[in-house]
Structure formats: C-alpha cells, structure tokens
Amino acid sequence: MSKFTKQENSWAMYDWGSSAYTIIITTAVFPIFYKSSATAAGVSAANSTAYLGYTIAIFTFILAMLGPILGSIADYRGMKKKFFNFFTLLGILFTALLAIIPFDNWLLLLICYTIAALGATGSNVFYDGFIVDVTTDKRMHEVSSRGYSLGYIGSTIPFLISIIIILLASNEVIPISSITASRISFIITAIWWVVFSIPMIKNVHQLHFIERDGNQIVQSFRRLGKTFKEIRKYRALFLFLLAYFFYIDGVGTIINMSTAYGTDLGIDTNSLLIILFVTQVVAAPFAIIFGKLAGRFSEKKMLYVGIFIYIIVCSYAFFLKTVIDFWILAMLVATSQGGIQALSRSYFAKLIPKKNSNEFFGFYNIFGKFASIMGPLLVAFTTQLTGKSNYGVFSLIILFVIGIILLSRVPEPTPNGVVE
After folding, report:
1. Which of 62, 241, 245, 291 maximizes the CB count within 10 A of its CB?
2. 101-126, pLDDT tens digit by residue?
3. CA distance 345 to 394
4. Under CATH, domain 6-207+214-407 is a member of which superfamily?
5. Comparing C-alpha atoms, which of 394, 395, 396, 379 is closest to residue 52?
6. pTM for this entry
7. For residues 392 and 270, is the Cβ–Cβ distance under 8 A?
8. Angstrom distance (rounded) from CA 28 to CA 276
9. Domain residue limits, the chain
C-alpha cells in the first residue's frame, strides 16, 4: 500500500508538471532568450535586467490585488477547482504563445510572459489552498515537501530535453537555430504542464468550503473585510505573514532573476543551463530532507536554517566573479530553496481555518506577491544606479534578517490549528 493517498499523489503531481514552467520559463531558457532579444535590439545588459525586474513587479502586483478577492470567492462550494482550471489553462496557453512571437520584439515577449506568469502564479494560489483538502495537519509538512521535491525531479526531464536541443543547435549538430531550439523548449513546457495537470484536475476535489448564500461576489467582499479585521487578532498568524513577507521576497527575487544575474556576470548560456539543471537535481532530495527534519525538529527551526543559508547566498553573491563561484552559489540555493517554500506553506496551513483556506491563502499570496514587487524593484533600482548586478543581490540580505527576527516571535501552532 502506498504511503501517500491517491489525492496526495495527484496534488503533488501538479508540481511535477507546473515546475517545468518555473525552471524553463521563469528561471532558465526564457530569461536568456529575452536577454538575447533585448541585446539584439540595442538594449543594454543593465537595462534589460531592470526591465525584467519591473515586469515581474507588475504582474505580481496584479495578482496580489486579485488573490484575496478570488480566494474569497473560491471558498464557496465548487468554485476552487474552476479558478484553478482557468489560471492553469491561461498559463499553459501563453507559455505556448511565447514560441511564435517574433524574436526582435522583446517588448511583446515581456507582455506575453506577464500573462503566462499570471496564469502560473494564479493557479498556485488555488493549488496551495487545496493542501487542506488532500491531507491532514499531521502530514502537511511531509506532503508539501513531497510536492516541491516532485516538482524539482519532474522539471528536470523537460529541462534536460530542452538543454540537449539547445546545445545541439548552438553547436550546429542539428539544422536549427538556437532561437528555434528555445522556442521548442517553450512548447515542451506547455505540453508537459498540461499532461501532468490531469491527475490534479481529475482526482482532487474541494472538501472544505462555505455554502453559497445570496450574491457570492458581495458576500465575498464582506467576508474579505471581516477576515482582514480578524487576521490582525491572530498574533501568530499576523506575525508569520509579516516574517514571510520579508524572507520570501528575497527567495523569489533570487529565483526569478538568477539567470539574468549570471548573464550580466558574463557566464555563457551553456554553463548557465547546466548549472540550473544540476540545481534542480540537488534541490529535490533537500526538499524531502527539510520535510523529514521538520517532523523531528519543527517547521519553524528548519525555516531558520533555510533563511540563514540565503543570508550566506546574498553575502557570497556580492563577491561573485567566476563560473565556479556561480556553481557554489547555485548549490547553496539548491539546499534550501524547496524546503523554505514547502515548510512556509505547510506552517501557514496549520494556522488557518480550513473552510476559509483559499481566502487565507489569498492573504498568504498577497504578502508573498507584494514582497515579490519590492525585491525585483530593489534589485532593478540598485543595478541601474550602480551599473552592477551584485550590489542589487547583496541589498536583499536585509530582507532575510528582518524575516528571521519576525519569525522568532511567532509562537508554535497548537494541535487545533489557529493560534490566538
């Protein structure tokens, strides 16, 4: 008999599929593709990195505004899956469309990327909310970590295929250009994502919900206002969201802009792709290890470990000069990237009432998304001001320090979940 239930496995398999978007579009191939397009159009390296940062800030702001509202509506019976399906299909469609946009139109590339990112991050709002429907409080840290681990493992397959095609094209082993090879990787991402979304769509259902009563939109806004007032009454919940706001800002910024940063340092495309591939492979077992250790030492203590590693990452990034330095940096990120995200999700899920999971995860995501506006803007502004990307990355260190201080003030959740 499997250790994990059919619903737990189906939920985790969505990470297996959607994480291909994260590595290929968000982190690896698309940023390089975009940087090449911008460079060909005469945009400087510093400015193209800054424009990417501003773009990330724009789409995260849009989602931050929509997240709690949509989450509140999704808490009604039968609505969570509808929202999840819509955003998933939106992300898949515009990921595929990236393959047909003219290479010399870097602005249109960014617009299409923005809509694809809205779909990807929007679907994750509801995917995260489904964790309360597929497992118990006792198993949340393990199931959440399994999702991230499968995401890292699953994403390496389409990523490896994409790397091989791109490397063969760049070395003229196959008769296609590097641009065409990158476009093929976008199609591979969309296909992989849609195929492994099927178990989630088919087998996972909303178990905790609020019954519909009158006008859903009006009632949702009333509940949203009430929740915002109540959330401040839960000291543990509010402190955790503040801590999360700061430390996840740094995590997300490093993930989203790592490839652009490496490019600015002069690291060639082939080296970047190989480094990112190995990072995914290394991150998979560490996500599981974080989940196992959380069961022994608590999620909070393992979050401390993850944040401390990121403080080291920011410090080391300031002195980054060679490919070997970037390798070391990437491996440090790999040890804690999945763990810190997985344990943040499960820790928060234990603090909230289950029937309002999407509404509370809407706030969880608004704190995360607003943080993701501040980080890229900070990096973009500092990079343009100094002309050096390493100053921008180093500036993120203060966010992790504030995060760990606030997290230290959060009491542990009780067996009943919500803490006053």
Report:
1. 291
2. 988 888 899 889 989 988 998 888 78
3. 26
4. MFS general substrate transporter like domains (1.20.1250.20)
5. 379
6. 0.72
7. no
8. 7
9. 6-207+214-407
